[in-house]
Amino acid sequence: MASKFQGVDFYQTDGLLSEEERAIRDTVREWADDNVIPVIGEAYVAGKFPMQLVPGMAELGLFGANLPEEYGCAGLNNVAYGLIMQELERGDSGVRSFASVQGALVMYPIYAFGSEEQRKKWLPQMASGKVIGCFGLTEPDYGSNPAGMITVAKDTKDGWVLNGAKMWITNGSTAQVAVVWAKTGALDEPESIRGFIVPTDTKGFSAKDQKGKLSLRASDTSELVLQDVHVPKDAILPKSGGLKSPLMCLTAARYGIAWGAVGAAMACYDEAVSYAKQRVMFDKPIGGFQLQQARLADMLTEITKAQLLCVQLGRLKDEGKSTPQQVSLAKRNNVNMATDIARETRRLLGANGILAEYQAMRHLANLESVYTYEGTHDVHTLILGQEITGLSAFN
Amino acid sequence: MKIAVCIKRVPDSETRVKIAADGKSLDEAGVKFVLNPYDEFAVEEALRRKEQAGAGEVAVFCLGPAAAQETIRTALAMGADRGVLLSVDKIPADPLESAKVLAAELKSSSWDLILFGRMAIDDYNTQVGTLVAELLDLPCVSAVSHLDIEGAKGVAEREIEGGIEVVDFPLPAVLTTDKGLNEPRYPALKGIMAAKKKPLDIKPVQPGTGTLEIAALTPPPARKEGRIVGEGAGAVGELVRLLREEAKVL
């Protein structure tokens, strides 16, 4: 049996966590060791999300874990929530993505922008994993520029009628419910963007699995088509308004991604260290060669920096002081460093590094998606550029 | 069902332990401590019995240093109702002294079951549970891998050399739990958050020194490096020769 994952803690960052936060991290870590690690390589090659993990995740309370207990959620702080994302992504980015979408992109907007009836109806069912959700914002021609979306919702006397298409939708074919963002006014009015709760069995709603992915293979990614989809008046999220609302969801999700990337990086580093100590070439372990030591030293350094970034960002978020720009910095830095570490681990492992039996190449391929989704690396660069100079490079 | 579970804080089996400078204890710096894995079976069994009965109490008792509160909270996070830390600076080396302290505490109330893990994975003594039973004058079944309870009677199975021993016993009783009895649950996140609000009494105790003293701890001798004799069927002859003549195991 493979030995249990011990984590990476070079700077005693554990000391920055409370006993509960550590207990939560250790529980999810152990759960991932027992449940994700044994099945993920095969699921990845098969191109299927391991659905059998969902009840266990729900039982632990991983979905919407930072939302209040009165809606069936765990009511955790944001550091604990981040640690959950870290440990899930240590298993696989697809598993973390599933939880991110369920919690931060579907449960969160229902909580933040929904009516009390909507919260009570959907949140407990989603926390218990009985209902799976997806989030429809990105469109085939509007990725980094969601303000340009052409999905529309028309107000009629017996409800809303939605038309449009959404692309790159995690959980799209699995979900029973979608939070769909659409313009309720003219196409040049991004301020008219509102969120709608759409059950996926509504007539005119269809989802198509995105074929041919070489990344996030253990994840459902789909295209959604909405053709004259009728939903009742109360399907609208009453407190949503303008592009700011979906962007708030993305900030919430990308906060979790910043942590998740640390998990993927630690998984790769762990694999790199153990391989470097065991693999013998020229009569000694390759870990004894300077080039590999430089790789490992860089990895440990980057992981340590990213851990400290995450804890401080989480504490700020708990105090209500974090800014979207700070989240951009963490997502941008951490996903980039994790991608580098996955690539260097893949290389350190030599030919073995390309096998599904090892983790590095799977994480590397996954992270290439994570690099692009939830605000591309480049867009976060521009967000920071704007923050620094006060000048927008977007327009 | 009123159930007491006695638990111990032990180093994680994945931790690489170092012997301290005194040569007879472990250097605890950087060592991760966990709830003894055999005690997890005891906690899980207690919780299931209480859940089946629909009422009752699961109380956990732990003899250990202040840091063992964290170990107790692990059991509380799994679902136990309250915890008691019998606080000492150092757990006595003599299992009888630990047993006396636990028995004195347990005596003050009545229990349907008192559960222990079969052994602690740090000292492998396998004694405290059975000693407590003796001190409390209660029936005891050790290393239970299957359990049925009907009213005030129980039937336990123990895995013994080459078979299974089935033991009938009356309640109240002391049982020590073995692998196979159940699959311990993960503490749910809500349970972890709730654990801090559950009662945890800290009672300083003074165990006797006992008759046992640890003279020295030494790591096992390093294993000699292996050798690959060859590959495929052609290597079998040489392998057999070496096993017979060099290793002398055939």
Question: Rounded to an integer, what's the Rg of chain B over CA atoms?
Answer: 22 Å
Specify the biggest β-sheet of chain A.
4 strands, antiparallel
Q: Tell me the series of helices and strands of chain B, N- to C-terminal.
A: EEEEEHEHEHEHEEEEHEH
Structural category of chain B is: alpha/beta
Largest two-chain interface: A-B, 21 and 14 residues
CATH architecture of the largest domain in chain B: 3-Layer(aba) Sandwich
Could you tell me how far the N terminus lies from the C terminus of chain A, measured between alpha carbons in angstroms?
A: 55 Å
User: How large is the share of residues in beta strands of chain B?
Assistant: 25-35%
Mean pLDDT across all amino acids of chain B? 94
Shape of chain B: globular
Brief synopsis:
The complex is a heterodimer of chains A (395) and B (250). With 395 residues, chain A is of the alpha+beta class. Helices cover 50% and strands 14% of the residues of chain A.
Characterise the protein shown here:
- The complex is a heterodimer of chains A (395) and B (250).
- Chain A folds into 3 domains: 13-127, Orthogonal Bundle (Butyryl-Coa Dehydrogenase, subunit A, domain 1), CATH 1.10.540.10; 133-235, Butyryl-CoA Dehydrogenase, subunit A, domain 2 (Beta Barrel), CATH 2.40.110.10; 244-389, Butyryl-CoA Dehydrogenase, subunit A, domain 3 (Up-down Bundle).
- In chain A, 50% of the residues lie in helices and 14% in strands.
- Chain A has 11 helices and 9 strands.
- In chain A, the strands form 3 sheets. A 4-stranded antiparallel beta sheet of chain A has the order 2-3-7-6, with helices on one face. In chain A, strands 1-4-5 form a 3-stranded mixed beta sheet, with helices on one face. In chain A, strands 8-9 form a two-stranded antiparallel ribbon.
- The longest helix of chain A is centred in the middle third of the chain and has 35 residues, at 244-278.
- Chain A is globular, with a radius of gyration of 21 Å.
- Chain A starts with 18 loop residues before the first helix and ends in a 6-residue tail after the last helix.
- The model of chain A has no long low-confidence stretch (mean pLDDT 96).
- By secondary structure, chain B is an alpha/beta fold.
- Chain B has 2 domains: 2-204, HUPs (Rossmann fold, 3-Layer(aba) Sandwich); 220-250, no CATH class.
- Classes of the chains: A alpha+beta (395), B alpha/beta (250).
